[in-house]
Amino acid sequence: MSKYRLKNTLDFERWDTLVDDSPQGTIFSKSIYLKSFGGEYHIYFVFKGEELRGGFATVVKGEDAVLDNFIVYNGILFNKPTNRQNRSQQISEQFRLSEFVAEELIEKYRNLEVALHPTILDIRSFLWVNYGKENLPKYVPDIRYTSYLDISDFHKKLEERDAFQNSSTARRQEIRYGIKKGVQTFESSDTKLFVDFYKNTISEDEVLEKGEKIEHLENLVKALLENGMGKMFFSKTADGELGSSAFFGVDNKRAYYLFGANEPRLRNKHTGTAVLWSGFEALAELGISEVDLEGINSPHRGWFKSSFGGDIRTYYEFRKSII
Question: I need a surface site. Which of 10, 59, 176, 275 has the fewest CB within 10 A?
Answer without folding.
Answer: 10
